[in-house]
Design goal:
By secondary structure, the chain is an alpha/beta fold. The chain contains 13 helices and 9 strands. The strands form 3 sheets. A 5-stranded parallel sheet has the order 3-5-2-6-7. A two-stranded antiparallel sheet has the order 1-4. The structure holds 3'-phosphate-adenosine-5'-phosphate sulfate (PPS).
Length: about 325
């Protein structure tokens, strides 16, 4: 009698134990835990994080962590503003500089790369921005080797304004450009086609990424959207990164003098981007948002005609039309 009861209890205990092991494996052993629980990786890591606290202060432990996402392109397309605006999010940290690890400093090793990163808690993700990565297959291959699941972000821009932006950049930096005329520069012997191609051929670079990574690992956004409605664009990227949107509508304010959206200085999240923006108005510093040269309609038409094939093919391949002026 006792033996019978005892064996029944053992069977039940064995069953409960097995169920326990199964549930443990299901929730903690499986990489799809976030999908099963239907929570974002950040919320999940936050839960895990609470156990990883500094023993003395009780605060979450901070250390330098390698990036989980990269802004890989393109220069003069708003990449710095994008990086800055993403940094407002409490779960995002970014280094202030372009680190250029995968293209220029690879021989310094991963530990060097890690040392360039700001400290973060395990619930935060590190995002690094180097717009030159997308131009180099070698760099992209190294990124793939580093983390084949890394999230990639590319921002592109109307080729006409990108050309003007590049010119304004050189005018501000090189004395030889100071009194130069944009049109004369653009048409310098056989230079026009090459210049326009460099400013509008985003597709060949995007295809380098597609040759290595699944297409849904790369989000392509437009500078025009960042300029017109940063809040919506940043929310889209946060969702792509699996981060919850904690931004309230008043985080950006349009600054009439600058002519761009800036970070609201009275917003509680402002301190996280203080180092990236102008202290007085919360706008990007003066090297962003420069005045562009005025150009004739005729010149615009010539640039558009030359760049249209690149733009149309790009929109076709990525199945997005950014509604750029003139195209
Ligand atoms: N909110 C806001 N504030 C300031 N600037 C803004 C903003 N949104 C987009 N932009 C545009 O960003 C352009 C600079 O692009 P990048 O940061 O990629 O330039 S760089 O390659 O890092 O030098 C920069 O180009 P320029 O206008 O030629 O300076 C801006 O037009």
């Amino acid at each position: 009698m006792i033996t019978g009861k005892f064996s029944k209890v053992s069977v039940i205990c064995g069953f409960v134990l097995l169920l326990g092991f199964f549930l443990l494996y299901r929730f903690y052993g499986s990489p799809k835990i976030n999908e099963v629980l239907k929570v974002s990786p950040v919320i999940m890591s936050k839960a895990i994080d609470s156990s990883r606290r500094n023993k003395v202060s009780g605060l979450p432990e901070k250390r330098r962590r390698l990036p989980k996402a990269l802004i890989i392109g393109f220069n003069k397309c708003g990449s710095s503003t994008l990086r800055t605006f993403l940094t407002i999010h409490p779960d995002v940290v970014t280094p202030s500089q372009e680190i250029r690890f995968f293209n220029d400093h690879y021989s310094k090793g991963l530990e060097w790369y890690r040392r360039q990163m700001p400290r973060s808690t395990s619930r935060q993700i590190t995002i690094e921005k180097t717009p030159g990565y997308i131009k180099s297959l070698k760099a992209l291959k190294r990124i793939y080797k580093f983390d084949p699941n890394i999230k990639l972000i590319a921002i592109i821009r109307n080729p006409v304004t990108r050309l003007l932006s590049k010119f304004a950049h050189f005018q501000a930096r090189k004395s030889s450009y100071a009194n130069m005329n944009f049109e004369k520069r653009l048409f310098r012997k056989g230079y026009f086609e090459e210049r326009v191609r460099k400013s509008s051929d985003y597709l060949s670079k995007v295809q380098l990424v597609y040759s290595l990574f699944p297409e849904d690992q790369l989000i392509i956004v437009s500078e025009e959207d960042l300029e017109a409605d940063p809040l919506s664009l940043i929310r889209r990227i946060l969702s792509f990164l699996g981060l919850r949107s904690t931004f309230s509508d008043d985080v950006f304010v349009f600054n009439e003098t600058k002519g761009f959206f800036c970070v609201n200085k009275t917003h509680p999240l402002f301190p996280s981007v203080r180092r990236f923006v102008n202290e007085t108005n919360g706008c990007m510093k003066d090297d962003k948002g420069r005045k562009h040269a005025e150009i004739s309609q005729d010149l615009i038409s010539k640039i558009v005609e030359e760049s249209r094939p690149y733009v149309e093919k790009l929109f076709h391949v990525i199945s997005v039309n950014f509604n750029w002026s003139y195209y």
